UniProtKB/TrEMBL annotation:
GO cellular component: cytosol
InterPro entries, alphabetized: MTH1187/YkoF-like, Thiamine_BP, UPF0045_domain
Entry protein name: Thiamine-binding protein domain-containing protein
Family to which this protein belongs: Belongs to the UPF0045 family.
A Pfam family hit: Thiamine_BP
Domain Thiamine-binding protein: start-end pairs: 9-96
Species per Swiss-Prot/TrEMBL record: Mongoliitalea lutea
SUPFAM superfamilies found in the cross-reference section: MTH1187/YkoF-like
């Protein structure tokens, strides 16, 4: 079984006529529908899962933005991959989670 990694993706659409945020929403919709764990932040969306699957989802997200009418896109990736071990978002962020009573 393929190890889980974290992949951060930022898609910056360029369009002379369309709103950039609405174009980014198309990419996030693809990620939401994919079924992988993800977190949307103000600068990027971070996904967790097998690298091959995440790269496939990232390509689909890029295509969705272009199909929605972007003239072009800039795509930035950040990945954390471990040798023979999974990477999880939980291990990096759980100590910052707040619990409300």
């Amino acid at each position: 079984m393929e190890q889980h990694i974290n992949l951060g993706i930022q898609i910056v659409p360029k369009s002379k006529t369309l709103d950039a945020y609405s174009l980014v929403d198309r990419a996030i919709e693809v990620i939401q529908k994919s079924g992988v764990s993800y977190v949307v932040t103000p600068f990027e969306t971070v996904m967790e899962g097998p690298q091959s699957l995440l790269m496939e989802i990232a390509k689909q997200a890029q295509d969705a933005v272009l199909e929605a009418g972007a003239d072009e896109i800039l795509v930035y990736y950040r990945m954390q991959v471990r040798n023979k071990a999974d990477v999880t978002m939980e291990e990096k962020t759980s100590k910052y989670s707040t619990k409300q009573s």
